[in-house]
Amino acid sequence: MKFSKTQRRTLLIVAASLLAVACRSMPSPSDSASKNDQSITDLRVMDLSDKTEIVVQGEKPITYTYLLLENPPRMVVNLLSMNRGSFTQAIKVDKGVIREINVHDGQNPHLAVQLEVLLNQSSKPDIRTQNNSLLIDFPRPQIDGQRVVDEYRIGPEDVLEIMVWKNADLTRTVTVRPDGKISLPLIGDVQASGLTTAELKTDVTRKMKDYIAAPEISILVTTINSYFYYITGEVAHPGKYPLKERTTVLQAISMAGGFTPFASKNGMSLFRKDPNNSAEVKLRVRYDDIISSEDPRKNLELQSGDTIVVP
Fold first, then answer.
1. Which of 35, 134, 164, 310 has the lowest tally of Cβ within 10 angstroms?
2. Which pTM was predicted?
């Protein structure tokens, strides 16, 4: 098909117009860069009483996606249309279940920043935005319903998970022996009973340095077995019971199956060691006083090592 000169001129004008429209619709390099002009202005970890919180601060509201992964346990957070700002180094944390946070560039312009949160154990976080912040909350580890806090003192029969970062051969799950010690590869016996996890970590790290350059140690109490109480006498099931949550005298009697028909309910005694001098203190406990009183202190809260005697 042949076109006249006038037709050819018209087609060229139309093509040039379409090209101009297409060029205007394409983002310029500066436009693409402007999408990622929001920087991370603050990245910190807060160790709170009931959770460990990661705070990511931006210059405006943050859009994100995330994924939880296993082997090893970790969380990957994609921060959309952001740049890393001054955060280029790995952040050592070792608080709660969080071990370390790495900040990476995303795989395309829209996934501009990727946070890799390395975890000591699998945990499902609560993640939300607030103003210009992204808040990622990991609950503190729970063991049989009892929250483990940093001040918890390790005791005999407690089960510990001791992890050596990037050295699976040295990672162990161990039970504290009756003598209060644990056995670990390379360093042998280590005193654990009476220490917090932070104190034990310091000791293990110091001893590991003789064999490993800059060891990174994480220690978790996975099972608490060293907290217990005894109940004896006129109850259905006398014996030794684990103390894994807040327990009162009435609750202890209930867990022991209740009183027998011959029990002297108002003649009970509670024997407790005095923490100041290790002497044993005898406390009188009357069932009627607990039931009739509006003072909750009458229903004594048990401590590890307590013995309840029901005559």
1. 35
2. 0.44
Pairing of strands 38-39, 82-83: parallel
- 5 located within any domain: no
Residue 173 belongs to a domain with what CATH number?
3.30.1950.10
Residue 109: pLDDT band (50, 70, 90) is low
The CATH number given to whatever domain includes residue 108 is: 2.60.40.3500
pLDDT per residue as tens digits for the range 275-285 = 666 678 889 99
